[in-house]
Write a structure and sequence with these properties.
Elements (H helix, E strand, L loop, with lengths): L1 E5 L5 E7 L10 H7 L4 E3 L5 E2 L9 H12 L3 H9 L5 E7 L9 E7 L2 H17 L10 E3 L13 E2 L10
Parallel strand pairs: 3-8
Antiparallel strand pairs: 1-2, 2-5, 3-4, 5-6, 6-7
C-alpha cells in the first residue's frame, strides 16, 4: 500500500504501509549518523578516536551480516499481524529541504488489516488538507525525537573528565 499526496503547502508526502517491520528495515543516511558512535576524546591523546562507521565493526557491515538471520522471521511477523497480535506500521514521509537532508516522518501503529486501510485513508486525507500531525482513529502515533548529531560535543573518556578543557 503506497500513495503520494501533495499538501496545500506544496509538501509531497509519501504514505505507505510498511510490510517489513521497522526493526528489520535498513537505516537511512541520517539514521546511520545517529547510530554511529560519536568521536571520543581520550585523556592523554592529542586527537580524537575515529568513528567505527566504515570499519569492520561499524553499523554498515554488521547490518549486512544480520539481514540473512532476520529474513526467515518475516513470515512469522506476517502471521502475528494477521491474528492481530502485532501491529502494522503506517508511515508518511516528506523531504521539505531536499533528499539530502533529514525527512519529516509521521509513524502510526495500527492493529488489524481493515483498521489499517481505514487509518491509511484518514492519514492521506488529513495530509491533503494540510494537517501537520493528524490524530488518526484507532492508531497510536510514534514520536520521533530528533537531536543534532553532535549531541553537545564529544564525550570525554578518562579520569579527569571534561575538566581537561577548562585550562
Amino acid at each position: 500500500m503506497k500513495q503520494t499526496v501533495v499538501g496545500p503547502s506544496g509538501l509531497h508526502w509519501t504514505v505507505r504501509r510498511l510490510v517489513v517491520p521497522t526493526g528489520m528495515r535498513p537505516l537511512s543516511r541520517t539514521d546511520m549518523l545517529d547510530a554511529a558512535p560519536g568521536r571520543t576524546v581520550v585523556q592523554g591523546m592529542s586527537r580524537q578516536v575515529p568513528d567505527a562507521m566504515g570499519g569492520p565493526t561499524g553499523p554498515v557491515p554488521l547490518g549486512f551480516l544480520l539481514v540473512p538471520l532476520v529474513l526467515p522471521l518475516l513470515p512469522f511477523v506476517w502471521l502475528l499481524r494477521r491474528v492481530r497480535l502485532l501491529s502494522w506500521t503506517i508511515e508518511a514521509r516528506t523531504y521539505p529541504w531536499g533528499r539530502r537532508y533529514p525527512p519529516i516522518v509521521l509513524t502510526y501503529a495500527v492493529r488489524g488489516g481493515e483498521e489499517t486501510r481505514h487509518a491509511f485513508g484518514q492519514l492521506v486525507e488529513a495530509l491533503a488538507r494540510g494537517d501537520g500531525a493528524p490524530v488518526i482513529d484507532g492508531a497510536e502515533k510514534f514520536a520521533q525525537p530528533r537531536q543534532p548529531h553532535g549531541h553537545g560535543g564529544p564525550p570525554v573518556v578518562g579520569v579527569s573528565g571534561p575538566r581537561q578543557f577548562d585550562k
